[in-house]
Design brief:
The protein is of the alpha/beta class and 355 residues long. The protein folds into 3 domains: 69 residues, Winged helix-like DNA-binding domain superfamily/Winged helix DNA-binding domain (Arc Repressor Mutant, subunit A), CATH 1.10.10; 123 residues, Response regulator (Rossmann fold, 3-Layer(aba) Sandwich), CATH 3.40.50; 130 residues, Response regulator (Rossmann fold), CATH 3.40.50.2300. Helix content is 37%, strand content 15%. The protein has 11 helices and 13 strands. It has a 6-stranded parallel β-sheet with strand order 4-3-5-6-7-12, with helices on both faces. A 5-stranded mixed β-sheet has the order 8-9-10-11-13. A two-stranded antiparallel ribbon has the order 1-2. A hairpin with an 8-residue loop joins β1 and β2. The protein is globular, with a radius of gyration of 23 Å.
């Protein structure tokens, strides 16, 4: 069993640059550290440490203070094995979702053979035994599982083949992973709503985010309500059966007696379904109901009023995916749990609570 090697930020940057050099992205000279730091959205100090690591390996050579580093001949001999990487999506539509399709794209650009499996987690009923059956029948060197529930993430972590959790209930599980840390952003959204007089604030998210117990984001939401004297309970984080019928039934129930004045909605498809429901009920946003999306989308740029949402940068997430794949190709054990910080973007779908 190989020794565990925990990678620092500069290690990950170096691994990515190493792969880019091997694929011939730059010829002769490397761009300067400031330009590279800007391109990859990392600190100059971390980039400098990564470049020095490549210098020690003889991949690049210093030309003196203030001058670009030269790529040496040894860079052509970097051994990066091409991996066949299977991606298990959350549901059948996952291949069309921007973040997951982008992951496939950057992995292929990095020289790996990445592909979606025919069945998704939803198709398999989130059943670990059925997931194991799919994995056993699929020829792959490594696996990426998307937005998976805890039991699925733990199963992939127990396997000997390299596995990666792209989002999902991954915190504390010994598996390479990346995702957006939405807790501070959700807290900021709740505070904004409470400042506007809202007390009946409801978060709508899928069952795997609530069961067997609420996730870290959902717990942060409930805790913030309690902090402001709003006793949280099932009303604020309602249980509903996954699927369109279960969701619509829950919305009908919510607005029947004590309708919420604000909704925080996870996933774009659920957000769109919520908007349609409110239109059919002739409820205005934000006049009757304030609305916050827990995801952002380029389509929001065309919306008026602007959409209040939670935003996170894709590029660091994609770098992490490629860095893990390149490490796996070199036989490096990479179990780092990585988070990119999300932020709350205020918008025109939030307004004072209706009295």
């Amino acid at each position: 069993m190989s020794a565990l090697r925990i990678l620092s930020t500069s290690n990950q940057i170096a691994a990515h640059l190493r792969g880019e050099i091997a694929r011939g992205r730059w010829s002769g000279m490397m761009p300067g550290r400031k330009e590279l730091a800007r391109q990859y959205e990392v600190g100059i100090t971390s980039m400098e440490e990564a470049l020095r690591e490549l210098e020690k390996e003889g991949i690049i050579a210093s030309q003196g203070t203030g001058r670009m580093r030269r790529i040496t001949g040894s860079a052509r001999n970097i051994d990066t094995r091409r991996l066949r990487i299977a991606v298990l999506g959350y549901e059948r539509s996952s291949p069309s979702e921007p973040v997951f399709s982008e992951a496939i794209h950057v992995l292929r650009e990095a020289g790996h053979d990445a592909f979606f499996t025919r069945s998704s987690l939803v198709d398999l009923g989130m059943n670990v035994r059925r997931v194991a059956g799919l994995v056993g029948k699929t020829e792959a060197d490594a696996w990426i599982v998307c937005a998976a529930p805890r039991q699925a993430v733990e199963w992939f972590a127990s396997r000997s083949k390299p596995s990666f959790s792209l989002f999902g209930r991954r915190r504390g599980v010994p598996i390479a992973s990346v995702g957006a840390d939405k807790r501070p952003a959700v807290v900021a959204a709740v505070r904004r709503l409470i400042d506007l007089g809202h007390t009946r604030i409801v978060m709508l998210c899928r069952p795997d985010r609530r069961l067997p117990m609420p996730g870290t984001v959902e717990r942060a939401f409930l805790a913030e309500l309690d902090t402001h004297g709003i006793t949280s309970g099932p009303y604020h984080l309602p249980d509903w059966k996954d699927g369109m019928n279960g969701f619509q039934t829950t919305l009908e129930s919510l607005f029947r007696v004590t309708p919420p004045t604000a909704l925080i909605v996870d996933e774009l498809r659920i957000f769109v379904a919520t908007q349609q429901f409110l239109v059919m009920k002739k409820l205005s946003v934000p006049g009757d109901v304030s609305l916050v999306s827990m995801e952002s989308d380029p389509a929001f740029d065309w919306c008026h009023p602007t959409i209040a949402c939670i935003h996170w940068a894709h590029r660091p997430v994609m770098r992490r995916v490629v860095g893990w794949a390149n490490n796996a190709a070199r036989g490096i054990t990479d179990l780092r749990e990585t988070h990119t910080l999300a932020e709350f973007i205020d918008g025109g779908t939030i307004g004072p609570a209706k009295r």
